[in-house]
Write the C-alpha cells for this entry.
Amino acid sequence: MIDLKEVKERMGKVSKAFQNELINIRAGRANPNILNKIQVEYYGAPTPLNQLASVQIPEARVLLITPYDKTSLKAIEQAIFASDLGLTPQNDGSAIRLIIPQLTEDSRKELVKQVKAEAEKAKVAARNTRHDFMSDLKKDNDLSEDSRHRTEDDIQKATDLEIKDIDRITDIKEKELMEI
C-alpha cells in the first residue's frame, strides 16, 4: 500500500533541494548563503566557513566576514579563492570583504538559463519520484482496480503540484535576477 503522505514528503524534498541549489546562484546582491558550501582547512580538518566566522552585510553588495579566531583569516581567504564563487576577497588584517559585482544584462541572462536548467533537473527528479511510486503501485497485487486508479490519480496530483511549485520558485528567482 502506498502512503500518500510519503509521496508528498518525497515530492517536497525535491523543491527543497531545488531551493538550496538556487541559493548558490548570486543575484548581484550580498547574500551570506552563497558562502554555505565553502569549507576552510582549519587545524587539519575541513570546517564550514559559517562555523569559523560571522558574516554581515554592511552594504547592499558587500559581505563582511569576521573570523572568531584571527589566525584563521588566511585560511578563510584561501578557501574563498579556491571556491567557484568567482569573487576576490579583500583582507584588511582583521576581516575579509567580498564585493559582489553588479550584474550585466548578459550575465543576468546566463544566470536565468542556469536557473531554468536547475528547474528542469528538479522537474525530472519529481517525475522520477512519481515513476518510482507508480512502479511500486503496479507491484502491489492487493489493491482493487478502483483503489489503484485513485492512488495513481493522487500521485499524479502530487507531482503536478510539485512541478507547479518548482515553476513558482523559478519565476521568483528569475524576477530577482532580472531586477536592476
